[in-house]
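Sequence in, structure out. Go.
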Amino acid sequence: MIWNRRAFRFVAPVTGVPVVGMVLLAVFFFGSNRPCLANGLSEAKSAVAAEKQGNYPAAVECYARALAATDLSESSKALVHAARGDLLASLDRPHEAMKDYNAALALVPGNAAVYFNRGNLLFAMGRYDDAIADYTRAIELDATDAGAFNNRGTAWFTKGNLESALANYTKAMELLPDDAQFVNNRGRVWLKKGDAQRARADFSMAKSLNPNIRTPLD
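Output:
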């Protein structure tokens, strides 16, 4: 019911290279056995390459070396903190990940993706009110963010606030009407509210969008 974290969704560049481009450059230039390199940009590229290849200890090490380098701007360091936070969260190291997300936001407070990802981490930690606050901040920064509406709806649903969950899922559907999971999530709210007719309608719509999706009625 929660959208996954947004690995490398960030738009801040490292010396002018968008992160998606940085990933491609890293995979092209750095092999799996190449050690971390001497400057921040190279360390960051090597970290991304190691992560893509599943060498997570090397990736964590290279991210640390990138942050220790002196040639990265604050916005670039924020990007590295955020990327390492994503990795640490995926490795079930939530407290370390939280430190990186906090550091990223201290450097660049206006990055909606970091709020979104930190919100997912807070949700996983059971800190639903804090997760809602982060999703709300992400929405304030990007009012077209359907995933943030969806995940905020799931946090409200988990807290038992069905009206807020319904409103957020509906807004997510308005922004991204072809996403079956959003429709399925709203159907769960209708079911919880005892409105079987509307629940069945949403589950049917979800199935029409994605025949493989599982609904509570399956």
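Check: Residues 110 and 180 are 30 Å apart (CA to CA). Residues 6-37 have pLDDT under 50 and may be disordered.
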